[in-house]
Each structure stands twice: as structure tokens, then as C-alpha cells.
Amino acid sequence: MTLKSEVDLEATDCCVCGVVFALPKHMLDNRRDDHSQFFWCPSGHRMHFTGETPSEKASRLEQRNRELRENLELERTRVENAAEKLRKLKKRLKTKRR
Q1: 43: part of which helix (H) or strand (E)?
Q2: 9-13 and 39-40 as β-strands: parallel, antiparallel, unpaired?
Q3: DSSP state, residue 11
Q4: Measuring CA to CA, which residue among 67, 68, 66, 64 is closest to residue 56?
Q5: Rounded to 5°, angle at Cα 45 from 21 and 34
Q6: CB 27 within 8 A of CB 10
Q7: Which of 5, 37, 63, 82 has the smallest set of CB atoms within 10 Å of its CB?
Q8: What pLDDT band is residue 36 in, cutting at 50, 70 and 90?
Q9: 46-78 pLDDT, tens per residue?
Q10: How far is CA 90 from CA 26, 37, 76, 78, in A?
Q11: 3-state secondary structure of 51
């Protein structure tokens, strides 16, 4: 009996010793997503991913975008209110001069 299997490997390197090694792509993807699971390089150094995943980065940027849009709306309202006050003051000044 013959068993054939294909595995997609992804190369990475150890952050301690620099050795380059490969692991199944799905395993590295899972480690990038969960941040808390450790794996080891062939030399025995314990490693884990700490950076943002693309989905985490997208969520963070979407939240920041919402915050900036809200701030923009608040500033527009503030400017419109100030412009209205200025218009009223100019009108009152104009009527006092007559």
C-alpha cells in the first residue's frame, strides 16, 4: 500500500539563532492568528508571533477611521456654530452702527 500526501510548507526563521526552517503553512497561519501558542525552532528555541494579523490590523484601522470621521463631524459642527455666531455678531454690529 502506498500513501501519498502533499503538504504546503512555509519557511520562517528563528528569532533567536536565525536558523531557517519550514512548517506546514496552516500551522504557521494558526500561530499568527492565536499569538499565544508557542512552537519551537529545530534548535529548541521557543517562539511565537506577536504582531498584528491582517484582520486585526484591518479592524484597528476601521475603528480609527470611524473615530476620525466622528471627530471630523464634531469639528464641522463646531466651525458651523462659530460661523453662525460670527454672522450674528456682524449683523448686530451693523445694526448698532446705524
Answers
A1: none
A2: unpaired
A3: E
A4: 64
A5: 80
A6: no
A7: 5
A8: confident
A9: 998 888 888 889 999 999 999 999 999 999 999
A10: 68, 66, 21, 18
A11: coil
